[in-house]
Amino acid sequence: SFSGRIAPTPFALAVAAVYVASFFSQFLLAAPVTERASLVPFLLMQAVTGWAWTALHVKRLRDTGRSPGTAVALAAIYALAIVLLLLVIAMTHAPAAAAAAGETPSSGWGQKLLLFFLISVILSDPNFGLFGIIILSVLALVMLPIVIAIAFTIWTGTRPTIHAPP
After folding, report:
1. Contact 65, 54 (CB under 8 A)
2. How far is residue 119 from each of residues 92, 123, 131, 135, measured CA to CA in Å?
3. Which of 85, 66, 81, 94 is nearest to 158 (CA)?
């Protein structure tokens, strides 16, 4: 729940568990899981870990005498990122669903070869050029919310506790 306060050490242990659970929830996007249960298990796990992350940060911020607004805003941005991820996954799973229905898939080895080609182009030239810079910029933008969340967690966990008035 969002009520109460939490000290730095229990906060660090609990938030580490939330990050580990969030990392392992990515395995729920594996083909065998999505074929049987679609994206629902992943979505539920993200909702649970997002709720826990937000509750822990709100409690810790309350313990430090700060407003929980930043934690709520970051949780909202994370929820929007998950919605975007689910849309991308749904779009990429459409060819697999069409193939399962007996239709000819529009992609296959060609996409994999293209991906390997793009990676080799980026990694082979020390001067990335415009294309490499664009690809690296997109990758940086994808990683930015994760970096911000971890930095905010470290900042929140290192704030000193303010004792409640008697």
Report:
1. no
2. 19, 6, 11, 10
3. 66
Own/partner long-range contacts of 4-12 (Cβ < 8 Å, ≥24 apart): 4/59, 4/62, 5/59, 5/60, 5/62, 5/63, 5/164, 6/56, 6/59, 6/60, 6/63, 7/63, 7/161, 8/60, 8/157, 8/158, 8/159, 8/161, 11/56, 11/59, 11/60, 11/156, 11/157, 12/157
Considering 27-36, 84-93, 117-126, 127-136, the range whose residues carry the highest mean pLDDT is 27-36
Give the three-class secondary structure for 36.
helix
Q: Whole-angstrom Cα distance, residue 152 to residue 56?
A: 12
Residue with tokens 């049987």: 36
The values of phi and psi at residue 95, to 5°, are -65, -35
41 and 33 Cβ atoms separated by less than 8 Å: yes
Provide the token pair at 95.
């060819």
For 88-98, what is each residue's pLDDT tens digit?
777 766 555 55
SS3 at position 160:
coil
